[in-house]
Amino acid sequence: MDLVEGLKAALIGVIEGLTEFIPVSSTGHIVVAQRLLGFDDPGEVFAVVIQLGAILAVCAYYNARIYRLLAGFFSDAKARRFVANVLIASVPAAIVGLALNDWLEKNVFPQPRASWVIANTLCLGGFAILAIERRQRAPTCGDALEMPARTALGIGLFQLLALIPGVSRSGASILGAMLIGVDRRVATEFSFFLAIPVMIGASGLKLVKHRDHLDGRWGVIAIGFVVSFVVAIAVVHWLIKYVSQRDFRAFGWYRIVAGLLLAGLLALGLV
């Protein structure tokens, strides 16, 4: 590993940590960053591992709560309901993701098609955020521990939109939850916990499938992983405070600008 590759890995790790949990699409940003930097990522193994770094940041940040939930699974009905809801919300992505994984890799993610898809979904997602925020109704679910199972399933179904590059897993789950009456902060925290099984499962699948691309890249992967982990912890802490005081419209406008900029760069052949 040379210095330049290490710096590229660190920069992409920063981008992953910054974007994994906010509604702007970490995958979209990483795909574009890799193309701009000329960073080679066979089988998307690097991207998968640094996503795991961000997910482990959630586990570290909420370690005490996770321990209480698991410890109280057999004795606390609310803890049992919460864990069950996370699993219920994970089921749609597990089923559809497994069924479509090969098709998506062959037909959606190859370049330059993926970049054009990302440019479009960034813009569309931005307009969707603005529309949802404009029509946001009073929440009917203000406690994640008392969320009905049907609400959790609804969030899981919204999360399926994130199979499309550029949609944003966190954005689909958070904004989808808000649409069906979940409080903004509750929706955000539930999205954090939902990321744990969903992203570990998706990442594990890709790692097993493309494990042959790990050889000789451990140094670069380790740098991206650590940087992603550290940055993601800071972002999770910041985002919880942010959603307590503000809405997501700023992210909507950001997505629109970023999508138009990417489309322009693609049209000019600069990406």
Report on this model:
Helix 5 (77-107) packs across helix 9 (184-209) and helix 8 packs antiparallel against helix 9. Helix content is 75%, strand content 0%. The chain has eleven helices and no strands. The chain is mostly helical and 271 residues long. It has helices at residues 3-19, 26-37, 45-61, 63-71, 77-107, 113-134, 149-159, 169-179, 184-209, 218-245, 249-267. The protein has one domain.
Name the structural class: mainly alpha
Task: Write down the domain tally.
Answer: 1
In whole angstroms, the N-to-C terminal distance is 25 Å
**Helical content band:** over 70%
What would the principal axes of the Cα set say about the shape? Answer: globular
Write the H/E string, N to C.
HHHHHHHHHHH
Provide a count of the helices.
11
Radius of gyration from CA coordinates: 18 Å
Proportion of residues in β-strands:
under 5%
The biggest beta sheet is recorded as: none
The number of E-state strands comes to: 0
* Mean pLDDT metric: 90
Low-confidence stretches: none
Short key terms for the protein model shown above:
271 residues; mainly alpha; 11 helices
Strand and helix layout:
Elements: H1 3-19, H2 26-37, H3 45-61, H4 63-71, H5 77-107, H6 113-134, H7 149-159, H8 169-179, H9 184-209, H10 218-245, H11 249-267
Helix pairs in contact: 1-2, 1-10, 3-9, 3-10, 5-7, 5-9, 6-11, 7-8, 8-9, 9-10
Gist of the model:
This protein is mainly alpha-helical and 271 residues long. The protein has helices spanning 3-19, 26-37, 45-61, 63-71, 77-107, 113-134, 149-159, 169-179, 184-209, 218-245, 249-267. The two termini are 25 Å apart.
